[in-house]
């Protein structure tokens, strides 16, 4: 691998940024990593990503960034110790100015490597980590050791202050960003929508209600199924779009619940979707029913970007992404009756009301939750820490 011949100046243009995360397989964290790497390169800097690899490495190299493969997600103490030495070597070879971590296990090795080499250390706090005992809280606490701690929502920022005592001056709230070119209604062809409807065996003329999200209990699929049963309508089609990721027991439970309510022809579980913009566009109502607070809530932001009516639980990041009654509806978490009522209300929107809501939804995302905004604010954080006297 070629290395830069000289280290970029810390001022005047972007420097060399090394992002560290477990793998580049799939997911919002991974996508955000690639987007930030692309922004660094576009700004004139050098972007390095360290992970155990995965299919998204190709996407990373396409934006001009470089990838280094290490078993960085391992929790084995010996492997973690070895990773420290490897990261120190990479920091020196690449002339890294900033190490940016996004996950706990890699963060421990990366923090020590940054401290040992004297470079700047930034963290992004992506979720509410389990902290039931002292050991878990100490393990999580590495994510607040950054000179700047990026919180992906105001909800997460409050969590960091409350549970880890981080002063507000070190926290920067940068919401997750939606790619407005990809999630643009005008760019989603009718052919893509029809192809997906055919693949999912959706009949014409039926309104579609969709809950996207991996099949795990806290995502609220059981609440959604109960709400659909409460509607007692046979003239709609409902989709649970997401992989069970090995949770076959929960998948069987959902199948049984669908059968119990005689919803076999109404509710369908779709294991995977590679064209989410088309999925949103063939949907009349997009639902998030998470019983635990979402750190941000990518689904409701993406759906709004495409002008779809959204329903989300009234907690966590959804309170920031949904303008209740204007771009969608917030309902009490786990409340089957309230969710059913909101779905019914959304399905009854006439054409003019849907058009007006779509305009407000698109503007909401464009003004507050775009990828461009996320990238610009992250680069601002990088430039900010480069002005600090000491790193690590």
The gross shape turns out to be globular
| Annotated CATH topology of the largest domain | Rossmann fold
Number of domains: 2
Strand content: 5-15%
Number of helices: 15
What distance lies between the first and last C-alpha atoms, to the nearest angstrom?
Answer: 26 Å
Order of helices and strands: EHEHEHEHEHEHEHEHEHEHEHEHEHHH
- The rounded Rg comes to 22 Å
The residue-averaged pLDDT reads 93
Name given to the CATH architecture of the largest domain: 3-Layer(aba) Sandwich
- Order of strands across the main sheet: 3-2-1-4-5-6-7
Q: What is the CATH class designation of the largest domain?
A: Alpha Beta
Query: What is the helix fraction of residues, given as a range?
Result: 40-55%
Q: What does the model show?
A:
The protein has 15 helices and 13 strands. By secondary structure, the chain is α/β, with parallel strands linked by helices. It has two domains: about 15-175 and about 370-385, Rossmann fold, CATH 3.40.50; about 185-370, Rossmann fold. The strands form two sheets. The chain has a seven-stranded parallel sheet with strand order 3-2-1-4-5-6-7, with helices on both faces. α8 crosses α13 (about 335-345). The chain is globular, with a radius of gyration of 22 Å. The model is unreliable at about 1-10 (pLDDT under 50).
């Amino acid at each position: 691998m070629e290395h830069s011949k000289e280290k970029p100046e810390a001022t005047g243009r972007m420097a060399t940024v090394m992002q560290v995360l477990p793998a580049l397989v799939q997911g919002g964290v991974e996508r955000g990593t690639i987007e930030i790497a692309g922004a660094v390169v576009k700004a004139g800097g050098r972007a390095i990503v360290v992970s155990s690899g995965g299919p998204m490495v190709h996407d990373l190299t396409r934006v001009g960034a470089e990838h280094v493969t290490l078993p960085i997600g391992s929790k084995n103490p010996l492997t973690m110790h070895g990773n420290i030495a490897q990261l120190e070597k990479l920091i020196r070879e690449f002339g890294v100015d900033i190490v940016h971590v996004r996950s706990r296990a890699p963060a421990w090795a990366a923090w020590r490597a940054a401290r040992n080499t004297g470079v700047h250390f930034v963290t992004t706090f992506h979720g509410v980590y389990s902290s039931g005992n002292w050991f878990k809280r100490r393990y999580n606490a590495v994510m607040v050791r950054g000179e700047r701690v990026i919180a992906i929502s105001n909800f997460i920022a409050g969590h960091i202050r409350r549970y880890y005592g981080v002063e507000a001056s070190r926290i920067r709230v940068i919401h997750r960003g939606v790619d407005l070119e990809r999630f643009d209604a005008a760019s989603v062809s009718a052919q893509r929508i029809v192809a997906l409807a055919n693949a999912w065996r959706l009949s014409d003329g039926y309104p579609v209600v969709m809950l996207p999200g991996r099949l795990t209990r806290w995502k609220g699929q059981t609440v959604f199924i109960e709400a659909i049963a409460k509607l007692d309508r046979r003239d709609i089609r409902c989709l649970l779009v997401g992989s069970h990721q090995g949770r076959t027991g929960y998948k069987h439970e959902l199948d049984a619940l669908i059968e119990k309510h005689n919803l076999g022809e109404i509710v369908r579980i779709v294991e995977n979707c590679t064209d989410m913009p088309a999925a949103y566009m063939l949907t009349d109502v997009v639902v998030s029913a998470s019983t635990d607070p979402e750190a941000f809530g990518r689904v409701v932001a993406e759906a709004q970007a495409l002008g779809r009516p959204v329903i989300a639980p009234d907690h966590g990041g959804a309170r920031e992404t949904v303008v209740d009654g204007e771009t969608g509806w917030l309902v009490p978490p786990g409340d089957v009756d309230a969710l059913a009522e909101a779905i019914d209300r959304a399905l009854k929107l006439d054409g003019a009301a849907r058009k007006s809501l779509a305009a407000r939804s698109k503007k909401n995302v464009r003004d507050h939750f775009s990828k461009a905004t996320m990238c610009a604010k992250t680069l601002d954080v990088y430039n900010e820490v480069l002005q600090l006297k000491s790193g690590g």
